[in-house]
Write a structure and sequence with these properties.
By secondary structure, the protein is of the alpha/beta class. It has one domain: Metalloproteases ("zincins"), catalytic domain (Collagenase (Catalytic Domain), 3-Layer(aba) Sandwich). It has five helices and four strands; from the N terminus they run βαβαββααα. The protein is globular, with a radius of gyration of 16 Å. It starts with a strand and ends in a 14-residue tail after the last helix.
Length: about 160
């Protein structure tokens, strides 16, 4: 399993090691056989650029996933494999958390779960598929929330001498 996390935003300080631990647990829970995932935490202007360039949608969005898995993989006997990039907009996570009375940390984890589900071929392009995906997203987020204190994603302030 290979999970790389890059932080290109300054809206929130995030404990990247802890986020990687949560992501690895998610992949274990989903019984992913092999993974090469890059997660990039970005701000609204960068997400807007990605959204407009690659999806032709105006403005920022919460999460964008690029699936790089080879067509036809994995073999029927193997567990699922995921290969791709997940871009998470931390600015949107903070905004949505306020709107839905949730923590921004849980929103970030929700977006990663959502991205991984897309890499596993979940679809949210129609109402039926969207409901199925949202149920699985909620189930997985609930399990991760019970296992981890997501508030720990906030990096503690550094002490200076």
């Amino acid at each position: 399993m290979s999970v790389a996390i890059t932080n290109l935003q300054r809206a929130r300080k995030i404990n990247l090691r802890f986020l990687k631990k949560i992501t690895n647990r998610l992949l274990l829970e989903l019984e992913v056989e092999a993974a090469e995932i890059s997660i990039c935490l970005v701000d609204a202007p960068e997400m807007t650029r990605l959204n407009e360039t690659f999806l032709r949608h105006a403005g920022p969005t919460d999460v964008i996933t690029f699936d790089y898995a080879a067509p036809g993989s994995p073999t029927p006997d193997a567990g699922p494999e995921v290969h791709g990039e997940i871009f998470v907009c931390v600015t949107e996570a903070v905004s949505q958390a306020r709107k839905f009375d949730a923590s921004w940390q849980s929103e970030i984890v929700r977006y990663i779960v959502h991205g991984v589900l897309h890499l596993l071929s979940f679809d949210d392009s129609n109402a039926v598929a969207r409901r199925k995906m949202k149920r699985e997203e909620a189930r997985l987020l609930g399990g991760l929330t019970r296992r981890f204190s997501l508030a720990q994603l906030s990096r503690p302030a550094r002490l200076s001498a």
